[in-house]
Amino acid sequence: MSKLNSVLKPSLVAEHPSNRFHRTVWRWHFYAGLFVIPFMLILSITGIIYLFKPQLDAAMYHQNMFVQPADVVMPYTQQVAVVQQTYPHAKVTKFTPSVASNRSAEVTIATKDEKTLAVFVNPYTAKILGDRDENNNLQAIARKIHGELMIGKLGDYLVELASCWGLVLLITGLYLWLPRGKVNFLGTLIPRLWSQNKRVFWRDLHAVSGFYGVLLIGFLILSGLPWTGFWGDTFARLSNYYPAQMRDNVPQSTTLTGSLNQQGNQVVPWAVEQLPIPKSSTPRYEHHSGHNEVIERTLADTSVNLDSVVNLAQAKGAPPGFSVSFPESKTGVYTVSAFPNNPAQEITLHIDQYSGKVLADVRWKDYGLVPKVVSMGISIHMGKYFGLSNQLLMLFASLILIVLSVSGTVMWWQRRPKGTGWLGAPAMPTHVQGSKVPLAIVAVLGIAFPLVGLSLVTVLLLDYFVLARIPALKRIFS
Which of 88, 91, 304, 396 has the fewest CB atoms in 10 Å of its CB? Predict the structure, then answer.
């Protein structure tokens, strides 16, 4: 009972400043964990599923994705024509040539009932092998949960907020890990997993694994933030600039290249999402009057089609796996884009649909320093950059996140007051003077990440002016 009273009624005796600060940080860490843990578990599990998308796709859709190689490849226009004949009411939006001699081509279509299907075509026979609902398969659902929790923009903001609070957890957790007295390797660098004391076991598992995983987890969070709706969009607008010759003397639309990345499908690289899509030149016509009719005949180069666009992309050095997005309107363009494992091979071409002229050609060399760093981080985050080893490294980071989430929950459950229904949060220090360091942390995080800054200020004000001053709430949350 005395222990419970000490938790619910903090001593009025003045504490040493270092103890007050330690308890303040512990309290932040506790509340951040309560909010973040459910999201971290969701993000870790869905991230692991999407991390192994190449292997899962090959296993789940093997009959559709793999073919017997032959000598002659059918024209790309014919491969698409077969799909159009089979799905007469659908709109072809994208074509991806086969990435290897034993792989099928993919034609992406939008159906009348608003489905997006990837239709697999044998490139040697133009035979349709099957299709896949791009919005309703295991990997697509995992990615949608990972990005927006299946609830749209609100979910996007919640994931961003949880990710930013994850940074608070890392900073406060690293501080709490630091030895406060004599340094002992056991429990600091080596977890005492053999201990019969359950609290020691779970504390060491949490603290030591967190210390070893702090850099990897920090990387996962920071490299994932560029995809978020608020911070990511703002960061992209501020960091993505391109040489003037990419904008001059070319008619520009108000549509951004990033609009091609719809419903979680990555079509163009992150670094070009803020680049305006150029307009195709207006085709010239001949007018012939006769019998009160005007006959219009285009003088545009009719040789521009999917075959010529794919051949141009290959001649320009587009790596295997590139896709061709079709023009959306009379002034639209063909967009060739590649999002390969190595971001240094990324390429985005906007091609006039009438003349075949390359209106924009953006590559790694055209990226600024920040887009290069972000693109590299995204590639590593997705486990793409250095193959299986990259996937295993990100798997390890995700597993550490799961261990931290589970062990943190168990530690809270063990220390909470039994049978009270109270949270058992670390008590607020009785003296709050000398809070310059916490306020400085809030200020830095608030400037770098506005959502977490706003939420931190809200929590601090709520904690100090509401929870600490209303006895009933203080008992529940302390």
Answer: 88
